[in-house]
Write a structure and sequence with these properties.
The protein has helices spanning 32-41, 55-58, 61-64, 149-160, 175-185, 190-204, 214-220, 229-237, 245-258; strands at residues 2-7, 13-18, 22-26, 44-49, 72-75, 85-87, 92-95, 98-104, 113-117, 129-133, 136-137, 140-141, 167-170, 212-213. Helix content is 33%, strand content 23%. The termini are far apart. It has one domain (2-258): Ribonuclease Z/Hydroxyacylglutathione hydrolase-like (Metallo-beta-lactamase, Chain A, 4-Layer Sandwich). It is of the alpha/beta class and 260 residues long. The strands form three sheets. Strands 1-2-3-4-5-6 form a six-stranded mixed beta sheet, with helices on one face. The protein has a six-stranded mixed beta sheet with strand order 7-8-9-10-13-14. The longest helix has 15 residues, at 190-204. Helix 8 (229-237) packs across helix 9.
Length: 260
């Protein structure tokens, strides 16, 4: 089984899993890189997984339907280009021999979902895989377009509780930008500093920083570290109303919105 990040527009990645014959893609905002990969590897498109309704995640679905020999899956509480199979929290689906569990993770949008592949015994898959859309980024999290800080905080806590080795396959290559913010929040975090050096090397070589891993994110992502003393102090300096983790998260997210 092969996990591939297909570069798309504006630092987007479209994730593809394939077994050499059949493929599933996640959040195809652009059809062109998917079509190119299908042709290059002689693959049949067996399914499309969608995390939320934003155009940069669903924009390529219509153009891919002629190539699709299976379902489109998406969040039941969002308007996804139809026809599609609506999914709810804790649903399970099977595509190309892999089982995925659906996780409700609202915040970025009201009905955002994630897909967790829990480490089926399949050659080539060395760890669980999380397709988390725009909820969790490496060293960051998504903006709150429709949800509340409390919803996003709870969604991130749910993802942070996954096994440390879980691969974090988010949709955007925002890692270096997020790390600049993380350095402002927690300058004394040596793990974050070392990770930034590695990510700069990867980007200089025109390689993705993704996937990350849940264990790494617990160490370097300020939005998952709202009880760390340095993070709490930084949030209080930016107007957090208390040292409560939700108040810290809320202040961090507002600070990130205006950070440059």
């Amino acid at each position: 089984m092969n996990l591939v990040a297909l570069p798309a527009f504006a630092d987007n990645y479209i994730w593809m899993l394939h077994d050499g014959a059949k493929a599933v893609v996640v959040d195809p905002g652009d059809a062109a890189p998917v079509r190119a990969a299908l042709e290059a590897h002689g693959l049949v498109l067996a399914a499309i997984l969608v995390t939320h309704h934003h155009p940069d995640h669903v924009g390529g679905i219509a153009d891919l339907r002629p190539h699709l020999q299976g379902p489109v899956f998406g969040p039941a509480r969002e308007k996804i280009p139809g026809p599609f199979t609506p999914l709810h929290d804790c649903d399970t689906i099977q595509v190309i021999g892999l089982h995925f569990t659906v996780l409700d993770v609202p915040g970025h949008t009201a009905g955002h979902i994630a897909y967790l592949q829990q480490g089926d015994a399949v050659p080539g898959l060395l760890a669980p895989i999380l397709f988390c859309g725009d909820t969790l980024f490496s060293a960051g999290c998504g903006r709150l377009f429709e949800g509340t800080p409390g919803q996003m905080f709870d969604s991130l806590a749910r993802l942070s509780a996954l096994p440390a080795e879980t691969q974090v396959c988010c949709t955007h290559e925002y890692t270096l930008s997020n790390l600049r913010f993380a350095a402002a929040v927690e300058p004394g975090n040596a793990e974050r500093a070392a990770y930034e050096v590695r990510c700069r090397e990867l980007r200089a070589a025109e390689l993705p920083t993704l996937p990350s891993a849940i264990g790494r994110e617990r160490q370097i992502n300020p939005f998952l570290r709202c009880d760390a003393p340095e993070v709490v102090a930084a949030a209080r300096a930016q107007g957090a109303t208390s040292s409560d983790p939700l108040a810290v998260f809320t202040a961090l997210r507002e600070w990130k919105n205006r950070f440059s």
